[in-house]
Specification:
Blueprint: H1 3-16, H2 18-53, E1 59-63, H3 72-79, E2 84-96, E3 103-109, H4 114-123, H5 129-134, E4 137-140, H6 142-150, E5 156-160, E6 166-174, H7 180-183, E7 186-190, H8 191-198, E8 207-212, H9 218-228, E9 232-236, H10 237-275, H11 279-290, H12 295-327, H13 335-338, H14 355-381, H15 385-388
Parallel strand pairs: 3-7, 4-6
Antiparallel strand pairs: 1-8, 1-9, 2-3, 2-8, 4-7, 5-6
Length: 390
């Protein structure tokens, strides 16, 4: 068969049955754009989280008892462990605003500690630590900043202390949006002010962070810590990354299952529709058979037709998902991962595309789609030309 004749009939079939194809394309685009949006969002968040976690301390130690405050004895024992370096004492705690449904995470640090100063300079290249400590200042996330401004606190906020007194703290800087993945509701304060707001005694801390340069010593250091204390909880960066991997894998798997169920339902409808091929389409196949087209030629025509429809649907669906996630920051969908019960999530999603994921999604969609069209067409093509034109 001449290729010009094949292309002519392929174009004719596409435009002649465009109303039927449009319905399949629209449904396919909806399904593909939804699942692609989820995978784009998940991949972007995972990539950004891993990059952010790399900048965090290797270990964080906190108490596992009701009393969360640790004294200097803990710091001294941790410092005595071989391989431990860059020890920092921190104060963490939840502060609830007047609206009890909203809260912020108070993080008290000592900016004069080398690693804390380094962490602040990673966030702000031009930060002046002495100026930050010259007055009662705090650094807030963009979500906290937006919340305070919505309640008429533009440049400062007045905290209510456990003693019943009030303390006004100015806003020194706002954290970059890229840090909101782990600091969406965070307020960074000098450690003394944080203790005052949370009602913690002088020298008390709620967590201790440190680094261990040799990865091979991590398990040994953790064993020594649990051997030295009976009331602590130790978390390392590997555990945090593993936790996020499991959480995203669970949510991705759940939505992939729903997608497959929806896709199977759609393919069953599509197969049933093509199984009862319209009389006009039967007649077209019969005419082609009468003109000398072989079964192989007809199947190649239907395969090309269905492939063009599937490819068009997939490309359009993926492009819509990309625009929705990386240009509009995935409104509504992002709350699947972050929730919406506290402060609003203000995040900057970094474009990240998992090629393996796209290939898998393409195969999961295309193979059933083409099969649902080819099988009924093959059944008609294998009948005689006279029977097909009835």
């Amino acid at each position: 068969m001449r290729s010009s004749s094949f292309l002519y009939f392929l174009t004719l079939m596409l435009f002649k049955q465009k109303s039927k194809h449009i319905g399949s394309i629209v449904i396919s685009i909806v399904l593909i754009s939804l699942i692609s949006s989820l995978f784009f969002l998940s991949s972007s968040i995972k990539s950004s989280l891993k990059d952010t976690i790399k900048e965090q301390p290797d270990f964080v130690v906190s108490k596992s008892t009701i009393d969360k405050v640790m004294d200097s004895e803990y710091i001294d024992k941790i410092a005595s462990i071989r391989g431990v370096e860059s020890i920092n004492a921190r104060v963490y705690g939840r502060y609830y605003f007047n609206n009890k449904g909203k809260s912020a995470l108070i993080v008290g640090i000592d900016p004069f500690e080398e690693s804390n100063a380094k962490y602040l300079r990673v966030l702000f290249n031009d930060i002046d630590i002495e100026k930050f400590l010259s007055k009662d200042y705090m650094i807030v996330s963009s979500s906290v900043d937006n919340y305070l401004k919505s309640h008429f606190f533009k440049d400062s906020y007045t905290f209510k202390l456990p003693s019943g007194d009030f303390k006004r703290v100015g806003i020194y800087r706002v954290l970059p949006t890229k840090t909101n993945l782990i600091a969406n509701d965070m307020i960074i304060l000098p450690i003394d002010i944080a203790r005052e707001i949370l009602g913690i005694d002088d020298d008390g801390v709620t967590s201790i962070s440190f680094d261990v340069a040799n990865d091979a010593e991590w398990s040994n250091v953790k064993s020594l810590l649990y051997g030295s204390f009976i009331d602590i909880n130790v978390v390392d960066k590997k555990e945090i990354i593993s936790y996020y991997d499991e959480m995203f894998a669970y949510k991705q798997g759940l939505f992939l299952l729903l997608y497959i169920i929806s896709l199977v339902t759609f393919m069953m409808i599509l197969y049933q529709r093509y199984s009862s091929v319209y009389s006009v389409e039967k007649r077209d196949i019969g005419i082609l058979r009468a003109l000398g087209w072989s079964i192989k030629d007809i199947l190649r025509l239907k395969l090309s037709e269905s492939f063009i429809v599937a490819m068009s649907s997939f490309i359009i669906g993926v492009v819509i998902a990309y625009i929705y996630v990386f240009i509009f920051d995935a409104p509504l969908l992002k709350y699947i991962f972050f929730g919406m019960d506290n402060l609003s999530v203000e995040i900057e999603l970094k474009p990240y595309i998992d090629i393996g994921m796209l290939v898998s999604l393409w195969l999961i969609y295309t193979i059933p789609f083409i099969s649902a069209i080819i099988i009924p067409s093959w059944r008609v093509a294998t009948t005689s030309a006279k029977e097909a034109m009835k």
